[in-house]
User: Fold LRC47 protein from Asarcornis scutulata.
Amino acid sequence: STARLGMEAAWPELEAAARERRRELCLPGAAVSERVAAGGGRLPAALLGLPLLQSLELSGCAALRELGPGLAAALPALHTLVLRCNALGPAGLGPGLGGQLPALRLLDLSGNGLEELPAELGGAEGCGEQQQQQQPAAFPQLRSLNLSGNRLRELGPGLARAAPQLQALLLSGNRLRALPGRLLPPAAAFPLLSRLEAADNEVEELGADIAALPALKSLDLANNRLTELPAALADCPRLKEANFRGNQLRDKRLEKMVNGCQTKAILEYLRAGGRGKGKGENAREEARKKKREKQQKKDGGEGEQDELEAISKLLVKVLHVSENPTPLVVKVSPGVRDVRPFIVCCVLKGVNLNPGNALKRFLTAQTKLHEDICEKRTAATIATHDLQLVKGPLTYDVQPPGELKITPLGRKEIKAKDLLRQLQLEAEEQRKQKKRQNVSGLHKYLQLLDGKDNYPCLVDAEGVVISFPPITNSEKTKIRKTTHDLFLEVTSDTSLQICKDVMDTLILKIAELNKFTLENKEEGSGSDNEPDALCGPVNVNPGQNTQQSFPLVVEQVRVVDTDGNLKVLYPSKTDLTTVSSLLTVIR
Assistant:
């Protein structure tokens, strides 16, 4: 009894959670590491006394080696379990995950150094095939499983039985040799799996049975050892995004499509029979022939037409910081390291949001990027501002929830803690009205700040918070139809490279939207004589053909530490290469 009281006293977070009947709990790994080590490297037993818990996170704790027995039985309402970057092994996971977690929808075990999965996730199978098929699914509602950053060499068919409703399977940064490999049992498996990521592995073969995933929409096998792609890939009925960059494909025409992320072209090419066996040589010869014909046209005085065609493509010009008389600088405070450490920024000039639905398309595209490449803001968050309303230099800082004040989009000034409370109440009301668990809008992202003692924010030279990632930006710098110069910001708690990849994609998307606006002559919402309703690439003479005659301009932005030392410069020479096949970058 005395020992039990001592344990409770050592975990005031758990006492508070029990007292307040909390449904979410986030234990910062660094803060609890010593207590976990003192408890034998396992989760505290007091956790088992929180039956209302729906979301639990303990990440970045090198002392955490096992969950301890009885976790699944004690937390029947748990729908989110995040255990990133700990030291959990299969033996340490098994006792905690043993039994059923009927409500679990998201399980994150990334960065634990797992060499195999526990039996509960279909790993080393402790019972016969027939007996296992008769057992109920251990995770009947699991939708997302993150196993990235481990040491897995293969996955067995047991995973499909344990989590039959899986929609997202993240396997990047392991040691997998083949996909799907043994992942798919003989019977139909993973009918809802729409996202499969296995970048940065050792995959040498992509099997034809990949086509057995009927709902697959996104496939990432970048930076593996593939030399060819199966024709069956073209039989994936819903595949929209496929990333095979960083593989040494034999068919160089196919490799060029891959490097340009041209999924539709890749599938059509495979459907037509191109796999790098025989037809690749014909493809290369055809490409050389086209190049010769183009050169002959130029030699014959038709180069001017080619130049005009090139101008009509998607163009951006990079303005180096040394060429900019008034470059924008973002200073990063040390406090963001433990909250949301990564930020990338740039300025984009020459955007036309005035005609028709251009602004609506822009905002819709940003929302879609948050859902897709930003992984519902869990990987990164985008914020876009009207540059004319941004007062630099800027500071990327952290502030306590009770001190951080912001005027959110469409709302009055409010403290961050009050805003989150208000949004949580709105979310509960929304659930009641719609009688469903899911919520929309900002309410989906509230859990991303659970357990944080400080919140990240971007502050302008006047001390005004213009961005509060991953929740909202400020009404002060809101983009309007008359906006033509943008300040773009991407933040992440995952990696700097994710920020850069998202920014690359964002700039490409804005360039595409700008081109669409120029080519589709919609009526503007303001007068044709208002110069600030039009922007760089637009020809303001209504009697002439509206044609993009100047590229969008991307101005480099420096991110520095408090001593002025450079941390990030975007775009650098190596940035925007991921979209280079779709975007011509003038440096």
In short: DSSP finds 13 helices and 25 strands in the chain. The longest strand covers residues 552-560. The chain has two domains: 12-119+137-272, 314-519+549-585.
